[in-house]
Amino acid sequence: MTLEENDFQAFSDLGSLSLLPNLQTLSLKNNRISAIIRDPPEPTAAPSEADPIKPRFSSTLTTLDLCRNAIAAWAVIDALPEIFPGLTSLRISHNPLYQDLTAANGKPLSQDDGFMLTIARLGDLQVLNFSQVRFVLIATRRCPPETDPTI
Q1: What are the backbone dihedrals phi and psi of residue 146, each rounded to the nearest 5 degrees, phi first?
Q2: What's the whole-model pTM score?
Q3: Could you tell me the domains of the chain?
């Protein structure tokens, strides 16, 4: 399903779509998604049945395109497995989150570093921004220096 350029601001705007049990692909490119749940218009208003909730899509939805939105917080990325439990393919480039990234020590990070952090947060991801995700298991053998034949 393609819902590009529709001015969605949060995943809660898409709640009714989560009722589609056979939805496999969802393209939300060029919207303004920046949050999981849209802020209520008046914070003092009493809660009602119409208040937005976090949707949960069917595990049949495996492909999601969030390219060119307004995602600027890791909390949105961290929520993706709960909202989209079947997610294996994600396009997320051109979001503010990947601009001006810095490490904990203040060193600047590249966009590619940001994409690697995304992969680390989404363990079931197989494709990110059209690139296959490959995990390499590195085994090391530790030998005391006196018994290591390569020394």
Answers
A1: -70, -20
A2: 0.80
A3: 11-132 (3.80.10)
